[in-house]
Specification:
The protein is an alpha+beta fold. It contains five helices and seven strands; from the N terminus they run E-H-E-E-E-E-E-H-E-H-H-H. It folds into two domains: 2-86, Ribosomal protein L25, C-terminal domain (RNA Polymerase Alpha Subunit, Chain A, domain 2); 111-148.
């Protein structure tokens, strides 16, 4: 007979509170053996003590009186729930790497209006770019003059 698992205390789990982890439910129901009178509506799984990177296995779960896990599952002892670092945090760390600025990007459709309003700011930037270009040319001329001598 299959019985659903209800996970409790996930929000106050040690791995979630102190480690910033996420509770991952691997199994949502288990096969059990019991007498009809002992058949539970669900089995509670308390994850309060789980630390970041740890898991709770089927044989570690307390079961109600008269209830046993199916013999095949008892031998395999699969993990029922884990607390892991969320993928979103890992991705954000990778995205946080330094990004170089690309000059001369074509604005997207929604940005065209903003680009039209910001033309005055662009003129100032172009003036700066012009100065930088002039400095580069002057430096190149000096190098050529040095080579001729």
């Amino acid at each position: 007979m299959k019985v659903p698992l209800h996970f409790i205390n996930a929000e106050i789990c040690a791995g979630v509170k102190s480690g910033g982890g996420v509770v991952n439910h691997i199994m949502n129901e288990i096969n059990i053996q019991c007498l009809p009178d002992d058949l539970p509506e669900f089995i509670e799984v308390n994850v309060e003590q789980l630390e970041l990177g740890h898991s709770m296995h089927l044989n570690d779960m307390p079961l109600p009186k008269g209830v046993e896990v199916a013999s095949r599952l008892k031998k395999e002892n699969p993990a029922v729930v884990t607390v892991q670092v969320p993928k979103a945090i890992v991705i954000e760390e990778e995205v946080a790497a330094p990004v170089t600025e690309i000059i001369g990007e074509v604005p997207a459709e929604g940005e065209e209006a903003a680009a039209a309003e910001g033309k005055e700011g662009e003129k100032g930037e172009k003036g700066e770019k012009g100065e930088k270009g002039e400095k580069k040319e002057a430096a190149a001329d000096k190098k050529e003059a040095g080579k001729k001598e």
